[in-house]
Amino acid sequence: MSLEQLHPGVFRIKTETETLLATLNQRPGQAVYGETLIDLDGRQYRSWSPFRSKLAAAIMKGLRNVRLSPGDRVLYLGVASGTTCSHISDIVGPGGHIWGVEFSPRSMRDLIEKLVKHRENISPILADARHPERYAVLVPRVDAIYADVAQPDQAEILVKNAASFLKEGGWATMAIKSRSIDVAKAPQEVYRQQMGVLERGGLEVVESLELDPYERDHALVVCRL
After folding, report:
1. What is the pTM of this model?
2. Alpha carbon distances (Å) from 179 to 192, 211, 219, 224
3. Of 49, 72, 88, at which residue does a domain stop?
4. Residues 176-215: tens digit of each pLDDT
5. 119 and 177 inside one domain
């Protein structure tokens, strides 16, 4: 079994039978959603499936700009029940923090039960990400924003939150679900349109890539303020 660091806090583990993406487990002995725990060289890692996480899919496809690092403060829009958030929690570690915004009460309950109760570096916020002013008192300036909001105005939502919370020179990563925006247009056309919204909103698009075969009709875009 071998270990290779791909990015700060993100690793590739090769076994005799497979190659896995993984993060260092901040809660050794505890899985979050049934993922495999791997003990190696005195440390424990959590497998990170590209079929369960759009960020993992992008990394598996060669994403160069994984702009999340130990110690970062992160605003997560559309945190849902916390699968990807759990791995970002591992990456930023005890010195970092995540503010997770979610509109669904049921998803928020799952997030709290499965994740927040066991990790001190996540703060849950039940709110609509279209209205950042409603949680402005809870979130400081952040180093990065991760957005996975499957809404027709998802790029506008990210622009609003970046204006309110992202520090100058900070990074924003957005998962684009083309079918949530316009089912009649080709996904590539939707991606270009959404990147245009981001750039007109003051964000510089640095990298983009499609997530097939892990996620159909999805792309991941990385921007800088």
Report:
1. 0.95
2. 14, 14, 11, 25
3. 49
4. 988 888 888 888 999 999 999 999 999 999 999 999 999 9
5. yes
